[in-house]
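Hi R.,

Here's the input for the glutamic acid complex you asked about:
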Amino acid sequence: MNSVVNPSYTGRLAPSPTGYLHLGHARTFWIARQRALAAGGRLLLRNDDLDASRVRPDFVEAMLADLRWLGLAWEDPVITQSQRLPAYRAALARLHAAGLIFPCHHSRRELAEASVSAPHEGGEHDEPLYPPSFRPAPDAPLPSLDAAGLATNWRFRVPDGETLAFNDARCGLQSAVAGKDFGDFLVWRKDGVPSYQLACAVDDAELGITEVVRGADLIKSTFRQLLVIRALGHVVPAYYHCPLMLDDRGERLAKRHDSLSLRTLRERGTTPSEILRQFADESVCL
Ligand code: GLU
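And here is the predicted structure with glutamic acid in place:
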């Protein structure tokens, strides 16, 4: 890690309050903090609270408290996605005006049945390849984004065959082919909220994030977000995808691993410095 002072660096922590944070989240956020400190930059905290079926107010409090307990710090105010709906609606309207999205009335089950790819191979924000036969014709008129339009699922029409690439600061050159490695992805949900892909792309761009530090399970999402950021005419940030922490069976840590949640570790007497020392030791090989 270099220590060049770069006052224009802005990073972010983006936890989701859908459970208690575990050691894997903590390590990713610690790396984000280290990179912001090393760059002499700013670090924001974004509360990714759009998944109303899973978000709980006590998880919001817990994630902030647990990160503070660990010694992480960020700039005030915390950015809360559920308070930014007008920004996401405006972005959706721009994608709509550019003819880059289309309404999708197929159920999740129909999509899963028609798709040949394995769902979720790229983490919880991945989705199966959208069947091209479900796409409306490119010149089909788009319904407007009135109340009914905003109560509809909308998808981004990916540029089939185009190779998207970015140079990851840890993993090196990453590339994927649109329409093959990932398909038309959800940008708006019929319950009136943006998908993670749209909200994240809009926030990273509008909040002036210069480097996105997050888990490697999101590499595939990055290609989708690059398309959205480009379509909206914003500057693309740099990316650093951290290795995922595995449990002793070699499986990725998830919020169900209660024994490795920061809460549980704290209750059992583990100290922040013990955790941070472990991260610092591991970071030699990150
Ligand atoms: N809150 C998102 C998540 O759980 C992370 C988003 C990001 O860092 O882009 O996975």
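One thing worth noting: Helices lie at 23-38, 57-69, 85-97, 108-114, 196-206, 219-231, 262-267, 272-283.

Cheers,
M.
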